Each structure stands twice: as structure tokens, then as C-alpha cells.
Predict the structure.
Amino acid sequence: MPDWNNISSVLLDMDGTLLDLKFDSHFWQEYVPERYAFSRGLDIPTAKQLLAPTFKKHEGTLNWYCLDFWSQELELDIVEMKKDVAHLIAIKTGALEFLKRLRQRGKRCTLVTNAHPHSLALKLEHTRLDNHLDHIISAHELGLPKEDPGFWAELQSVEPFTPHQTLLVDDNLNALRSAQQFGIKHLLAACYPDSKRERQHTDEFAYFHEFDEITPASFPTS
Ligand SMILES: [Mg+2]
């Protein structure tokens, strides 16, 4: 359980943390290769083979999360394609209750995501997560991904927070590492970003499986 009495701000990741990563996994690993194969007259395994090094090259950069970049690179309408599989967008069990409880306890809740604004808009439309958050920030507004240690200082200019009273909840270990390097004191890793896949292991950070393990009590306990 996080040290709730000493936490005033909570920074929350979206994909793989509040939302099930199965949408994104399916989109990038199945649907994009399928459409790429169709548009080029290839079979799907060949398309996957061709796409793998391109994906690898941009992993962890802002381009990786940029729908305009991929639309251009793959010559596919990525924004429209996301809408085709939008029925897979799902809030994780207990995530809304967790947010409600945090705000009841007076914690400021900020969504901090690497997701592109179009992707973010689609997910908010389908989940209405915005009703449970104080502020929403896409890394694209700041020009750096969360994996970059410079990101957190940029974030402070639009969302002031005190690093030793701040908790980051994220499934991206590189984002947690860069936040730690910046001085954010409370860090929590999501073990099950994707309900369809195996758990991810981390000994580096405190972690949780289900939100009920980390949801604070309604009233402070001493
Ligand atoms: Mg994530």
C-alpha cells in the first residue's frame, strides 16, 4: 500500500495502467500488420516481419506514440483504423473506484500519457475517464516522452507537483526509471498491463496486480 498520508499528487499513466493494454496490443500487433499486408499485397507473416524492425527503431521515442508519424510511415489512416477496433478499449477492474477514492481523500489526480492527442481523445470518448481526473496531459504537448528524464521538469511547468509528495503509477518501467531519476519519491508499477498476456516482473519498483490492493481507505488511518 502506498504511503497515502504523505502523498498529495498522483500521476497516472493511461494505457496499460488505467486502461487494459489489450486494445493497443491488438491494434499494433494484429490489426496494423493485417491492413499493411492488404495494402501492399503481402501475406500477414511477411508484413509482420517487415514491420518489426521499423517498430523496434522508434520504441520509446515520441514518434512511437505519434499517429501522424505512423500514418505517413505506413501510408495507412491510423486515426481512422483505431476507431475500427475501439470496442476493445476497456477500463481495468477497480480503476474508477481507485480514482474516486483518491479524489475523496483530496489527492490531485493527473493523467500523464505518452498517447497521441487523437488516441487520447478516442479513449476518453469511450471511457469518460476525464470525469475522474483533475488534469490530463499528453506528452506530445511537452515535446518529450515520459522515458526522457527531462520530461518531468517540463511537466512541472504545466502541472506543479512536489516530487517527494508525488506518486507515479505506470506500467512503463523506463518511465518509472526516469521519474525516479528526477526525484519523484513514490513509484508504483502495474504488473498486468494487458489482461491477455502474462504479468510483467519488476523487482525494481513496488508493484500491484489489482487496484483494490492499492486503493486507500475512505478516511486517513494513522
Ligand atoms: Mg502505459
Summary: Residues 13, 15-17, 170-172 surround magnesium ion (CB under 6 Å).
